Amino acid sequence: MRLLRRRRRDLLVCREFVELVTDYLEGTLPDGDGARFEAHLSECDGCSGYLEDMRRLVASLHRVPAPPPDPATRDALVRAFEDLRGPA
Amino acid sequence: MAGYDGTLRRVALTFVRTPAAADEVVQETWLNVVRGLDGFEGRSSLRTWIFKILANVARTRAVRDARSVPFSTLEGEDRPAVEPSAFAADGRWSSAPTRLDADPETGLLSSELRARLRDAVEELPPVQRAVITLRDLVGVPPDEVCDLLGISDGNQRVLLHRARARVRAALVPLVEVSG
Fold first, then answer.
1. I need a labelling partner for A36 at 20 to 30 A (CA). Which of A24, A57, A71, A77 fits?
2. What is the domain range of residue B41?
3. Same domain, B85 and B117
């Protein structure tokens, strides 16, 4: 009986799983939730695919190249350095 | 500097609306950095210090122009990560979720999808865009993001969660069309 209650409390459904993905990846899930998360992960192909895609998404965002520097900014900076150095 | 500049523009664009305004903010930031370099005490990383200067410059400008990006941390609460219709009444997937195309060699998303990431981030509401830009595009650690944007740790995580989920949702139709 006790086991049954515990099992019900531990069950995580997919709709809840997707809302915990960021906390999981951030390492901020409380211990109990982490165990429930991983238990669900091990038995649900849909959710493990979703998690894998989110990992790939984050890794891909890290690789998006930054926009090119603005030439006007570089010129302003060069002038600022020259001003700083003062008249020769 | 060239390495920082594009990054600073990217961060500036999370505070002001137009590329021209962002360029001005970045220029002013560099000037303040150059003038203030003597005052840099090395207690934070140089990058953190520069980002703080940028955030101050950008906020000042936004107030002056009365054109600041409206910063509502309520953005984090707008909608679930995945549309409710994807789930059956019992909370399980009604059918397996769409998988994003991956590049088997790199383990990243396919190049077609990666090409859309910048636009997908651009289309996010302002605070979500700011958080995902700093965290995932620039790689700023969470505590620094909280500091720069003046938001709580919990808020930062919720905003990041919503932002990533919306970027994924923006990519899904591309897969479904081509697949």
1. A57
2. 2-65
3. yes
